[in-house]
Amino acid sequence: MGLVVQKYGGSSVADAEGIKRVAKRIVEAKKNGNQVVVVVSAMGDTTDELIDLAEQVSPMPAGREFDMLLTAGERISMALLAMAIKNLGHEAQSFTGSQAGVITDSVHNKARIIDVTPGRIRTALDEGNIAIVAGFQGVSQDKKDITTLGRGGSDTTAVALAAALDAEVCEIYTDVDGVFTADPRVVKKAQKIDWIAFEDMLELAASGSKVLLHRCVEYARRYDIPIHVRSSFSGLQGTWVSSAPLTKQQGDQKVEQAIISGVAHDTSEAKVTVVGVPDKPGEAAAIFRTIADAEINIDMVVQNVSAASTGLTDISFTLPKTEGRKAIDALERNKGGIGFDSLRYDDQIGKISLVGAGMKTNPGVTASFFEALSDAGVNIELISTSEIRISVVTRADDVPEAVRAVHSAFGLDSDTVEAVVYGGTGR
């Protein structure tokens, strides 16, 4: 008997009919001889609606109470799903994140998992039950407060439980049939990827691909947990994410790593430019120490060549839009210590990234990437590269056309429209 962890996103359990459909799939996995642990997200746009409600009540809700509010969505889903499974003649028990043993640090709204002690889950499985766990949440190690893992945290919950329970696979069910070479909402002829390495998936996730959360893939790679991304709306095989192709799932077919894995985009970032920074040792360190002390993650960084006449330079970096105000305030408070002239803030930007492990051994990839953007009339503001990724920042309005141009330039377009988005508002 194998142990399988399944995770269902909000679009899969958006309404009563969706919950019943998911319950049938879970029972089928149980009938196939597996022990089944299920991680579930809040129904549909419930989390967004709770956020809206909190903002109407308080413009800056306290982190502890905000987490307490948001975790209500997953508790509703898990209880309803357990009821639906019992109606199908199988026993199911639902557990909150804290009951499931998900131990986190004390950072509210974006806690990180420290440990998983799934004693109650193992007991439920040993008794023949299906275990339903509320995703996205845990309990802090020191204060025992309820915490949330940040948006998309249910994926991380699922992989963490799979690692702690030594599961054979972690199945992530969503509203598309797998990982595609681009967002099918933007590129209609995007192709489904049968298998992708952890490293490539990490880059795609970090670059804006919303199918899997970056932290989830990072956790899976660390503990070597294969992920199978599938749609809960169809019975099709999805995308395997693992350290190497899994011959059991792929049959006898030899799967060779493609030169280009895909094109990702992200319009959730903003750009901050620190103008008139003295070009001397320690200035950049002071800027980014200020940002780090404010607990803000940054992405791309570019420093201009200093002007010979003034000895001043500009430093630009990108960060999540949601952290923009906090970053500006932190830098303004430390303006005297850093010595810059002014700050510029721009939240009308977008990032396009080309990802592929084969890029580093294939000359001409970079040239083709920039030629595609040029032919599409897209202007580039920032550039960042790694061995398997090229990222650029452009105007937000140019992102859809840029993604389609790059996707076509590298021969990733399918002959037919095979990407189907079954549900979800994309909110």
Characterize this entry briefly:
The chain is of the alpha/beta class and 427 residues long. It has a domain at 3-248: 3-Layer(aba) Sandwich (Carbamate kinase). It is built from 13 helices and 20 strands.
Description:
The chain is of the alpha/beta class. It has a domain at 3-248: Acetylglutamate kinase-like (Carbamate kinase). Helix content is 33%, strand content 24%. It contains 13 helices and 20 strands. The chain has helices at 16-31, 46-57, 63-87, 119-126, 153-164, 198-206, 214-223, 247-250, 283-293, 324-333, 335-338, 365-375, 399-409; strands at 3-8, 35-40, 92-95, 102-104, 113-116, 130-134, 137-140, 146-148, 169-174, 195-197, 227-231, 239-242, 262-266, 269-278, 301-303, 312-320, 342-346, 349-355, 382-386, 389-395. An 8-stranded mixed sheet has the order 3-6-2-1-9-11-12-10, with helices on both faces. Helix 2 (46-57) packs antiparallel against helix 3 (63-87), helix 6 (198-206) runs antiparallel to helix 7 and helix 12 (365-375) crosses helix 13. The longest helix has 25 residues, at 63-87. The radius of gyration is 23 Å and the shape is globular. The two termini are 39 Å apart. Residues 272-348, 354-427 form the ACT domain. Its EC number is 2.7.2.4. InterPro entries: AceGlu_kinase-like_sf, ACT-like_dom_sf, ACT_Aspartokinase, ACT_dom, AKii-LysC-BS, Asp/Glu/Uridylate_kinase, Asp_kin_monofn, Asp_kinase.
